[in-house]
Amino acid sequence: MRQAKIDLRSDTVTLPTEEMMEAIRYAKLGDDVFGDDPTVIELQEKAAKLLGKEAALFVSSGTMGNICGLVSQTNKGDEVILEKNSHIFLHEVASPAVIGGLQLRTYAGKNGYLLTPEMLDELVRGFDVHYPISSLVTIENTHNMAGGKPWKINELKNIFSAAKKKNLKIHVDGARIFNAAIALGVPVSELVKDADSVMFCLSKGLACPIGSMIVGSQEFIDKALRTRKMLGGGMRQVGIIAAPGIVALESMINRLADDHKNAQLLKKGLDEINGIKTKDCETNILFIDISGLNIPGKQFKADLANHNIIVSSRWDTVFRFVTHFGIEIEHVEFVVETLHKLYG
Fold first, then answer.
1. Could you tell me if 154 and 288 lie in one domain?
2. Are residue 293 and residue 205 in the same domain, yes or no?
3. Are residues 96 and 140 in the same domain?
């Protein structure tokens, strides 16, 4: 029997649970633009409490959440500091510039992700009429392009403290912030307690079909609500897509540990193949370099696809494998076995 498709491109390919589908079916609805959809109100209250913030707002995507976070805390012409391989810089269609009128100043993160206080000293502009005003720092936790690296508690404390001393706002792109919390064994609120705003995705590892959340102070959320409306994000009976988010926050966070274990199992199996080099893997994202196999990346991708294994490439010989809800141990074992047969 042919193996069913094993999709390791991203944790965005997850499908909702049966409990989520039931929650959609029986969701209590209202008009969210009028502020009276009870299901999205419940979701927002749960999200704010879980992350230790005053308020939260449901948005349609992580990109919308990030632009709300940036625009609602800056002025046109300001400069935002962020890592050169961050999602906001690489994969959000220049929205800070187009929508927010913001200039982006990038840095090469230490170990692929980290911003230190010393680096921040070099990045923040001094006062000069010729310069933009440095007003906000963003960090990505976990950092996708660094292989799902989670920021450690001391690293966060150091950069948050340094940013506050310079009167900089801090936005956390926490698309996978719960992966970071599970990997470090700490409450998620500990990772964001000094951040001014946080975005996290419901539609990645938490397996919801749609949506993200932004959290922060009530003042910030009031501004973000206006930004969301400006972007066309004022939806009506939004409880239909908010209902799975409640299920996710109640029952899908701790199971992220399974994804991390599966990624480690995958890494261990691929480490045994000469010609494949795996990168560090602490959460659910594993990057591999196949240059030692001396085959084109297109061939590698096609070879896997012939066995119903789908992966995404970052560069010609660098591929990303992402474990998630729906990928079980037997799927990982099949992937490892297939790669050993092909290239071992």
1. no
2. no
3. yes
pTM listed for this prediction: 0.96
161: helix, strand or coil: helix
1 in a structural domain: no
What domain range includes position 319? Answer: 6-13+255-343
Pair 153, 292 in one domain: no
Mean pLDDT confidence for 212-240? 97
Helices vs strands, H then E, count in the chain: 14, 13
Query: Can you give the CATH number for the domain in which 291 is found?
Result: 3.90.1150.10
Q: How many CB atoms lie under 10 A from the CB of residue 141?
A: 25
| Burial grade of 225 (CB within 10 A; 0-12, 13-18, 19 or more) | buried
Pairing label, strands 55-59, 312-315: unpaired
Q: Is the Cβ–Cβ distance between 197 and 216 less than 8 Å? A: yes
| 109 and 241 both lie in a single domain | yes
Give the number of other Cβ atoms within 10 Å of residue 333's Cβ. Answer: 14
Spell out where 174-323 has E strands: 197-201, 212-216, 277-278, 285-289, 309-310, 312-315, 318-322
- Other beta carbons within 10 angstroms of residue 337's beta carbon come to 13
The residue type at 110: K
pLDDT in tens, 85-103: 999 999 999 999 999 999 9
Number of structural domains (the chain) is 2
Q: Which residues of 320-331 are buried (b: 16+ CB within 10 A; e: fewer)?
A: bbbbbbebeeeb
Residue 338: φ, ψ to 5° = -65, -45
Q: Which two tokens stand for residue 61?
A: 């995507």
